[in-house]
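Task: sequence design from structure.
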């Protein structure tokens, strides 16, 4: 452990957990993941189809298992699933001491249901239940998109006592809907006699993609002769302001009487998780989405390069509740005549893009796996 590592301060002083947004068989089998837990302080890990595409495509570490799958006559889909489930199970085992030590607060490994079913509630529920049973680890979280079709699935799956990471949340309204879906699911679980203390959930609220989208719009307006001073003043500010407002909604919901009735039965709050936290614009601080959003009962999931940057020069402080009036005014100013950016439309666009950003690598991964199966089958 490096005593000066700010990540430990973020966790121990401010009550925020740092998870890593990256997973591959290499880091599990080499011992790197176990070392990172001890040395950098990460207490959870997330994956998605884009991450698995990078992990599996062109990586020989998976070849023997693929060959075994071919020999057993398995389909490409089944071979893929076996590879991914094995990685998730092994990562869960690495994180199990963290899960135990934190009494189920941390130590989770997230796996996403196929992105191709994002608009199919019934199939999402069925796949989430199947994934949870097949992986069979207490510290696995099933990722479900926070789409209009996904949230009823979240409610149903929570009601079954399954841990859920609700992903692709961009708007505050979508976050609020997610929190209440979690609460309704717990109420159903309680009504059926389930153990609320064994269920965990996070709501993954995205950041940098919002700024990238809005910054591009602001740049276009400046090039078209808009108010440069005003438009420039909004750049790189919207995502953090949006997140601060979401955090206030989190506090409001999880201090309500309706929530307290569940807490009295052992339920844990659904923590807000900051996602998409690598800074895309090199003009901005590479840890801006960490430093500005440190807060109690939250998680920040960072890619490896941001973990490295944060361990080196994060400046932890509870800034998440600072300048709240300014955050509200900033978001409201997007509707001003000389800015004219429809934030709700941006959020809808980002959600559609977000699903597409998972569907495409998933399709690419399956295509590359199919090619590898054909190649190994000839050997």
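Answer:
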């Amino acid at each position: 452990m490096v005593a000066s590592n700010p990540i430990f301060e973020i966790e121990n002083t401010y009550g925020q957990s740092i998870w890593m947004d990256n997973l591959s068989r290499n880091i599990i089998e080499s011992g790197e993941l176990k070392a990172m837990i001890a040395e950098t302080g990460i207490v959870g890990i997330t994956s998605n189809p884009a991450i698995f595409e990078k992990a599996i495509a062109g990586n020989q570490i998976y070849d023997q298992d693929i060959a075994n799958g071919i020999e057993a006559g398995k389909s490409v889909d089944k071979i893929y699933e076996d590879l991914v489930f094995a990685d998730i199970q092994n990562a869960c085992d690495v994180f199990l001491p963290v899960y135990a030590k934190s009494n189920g607060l941390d130590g989770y490994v997230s796996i996403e249901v196929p992105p191709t079913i994002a608009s199919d509630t019934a199939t999402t529920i069925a796949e989430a239940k199947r994934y949870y049973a097949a992986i069979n680890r207490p510290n696995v979280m099933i990722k479900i998109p926070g789409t209009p079709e996904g949230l009823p699935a979240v409610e149903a799956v929570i009601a079954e006592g399954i841990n859920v990471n609700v992903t692709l949340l961009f708007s505050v309204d979508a976050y609020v809907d997610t929190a209440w879906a979690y609460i309704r699911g717990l109420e159903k679980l309680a009504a059926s006699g389930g153990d609320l203390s064994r269920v965990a959930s996070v709501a993954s609220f995205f950041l940098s993609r919002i700024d990238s989208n809005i910054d591009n719009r602001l740049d276009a307006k400046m090039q078209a002769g808009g108010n440069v001073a005003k438009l420039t003043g909004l750049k790189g500010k919207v995502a953090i302001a949006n997140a601060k407002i979401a955090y206030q909604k989190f506090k409001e919901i999880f201090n309500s009487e309706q929530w307290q009735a569940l807490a009295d039965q052992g339920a844990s709050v659904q923590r807000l998780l900051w996602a998409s936290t690598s800074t895309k614009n090199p003009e901005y601080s590479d840890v801006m989405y960490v430093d500005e959003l440190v807060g109690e009962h939250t998680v920040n999931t960072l890619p490896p390069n941001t973990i490295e940057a944060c361990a080196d020069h994060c400046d932890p402080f509870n800034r998440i509740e600072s300048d709240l009036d300014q955050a509200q005014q900033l978001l409201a100013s997007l509707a001003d005549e000389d800015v004219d950016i429809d934030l709700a439309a941006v959020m809808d666009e980002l959600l559609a893009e977000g699903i597409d950003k998972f569907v495409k690598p998933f399709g690419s991964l399956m295509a590359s796996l199919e090619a590898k199966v054909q190649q190994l089958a000839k050997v």
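The chain has 17 helices and eight strands.
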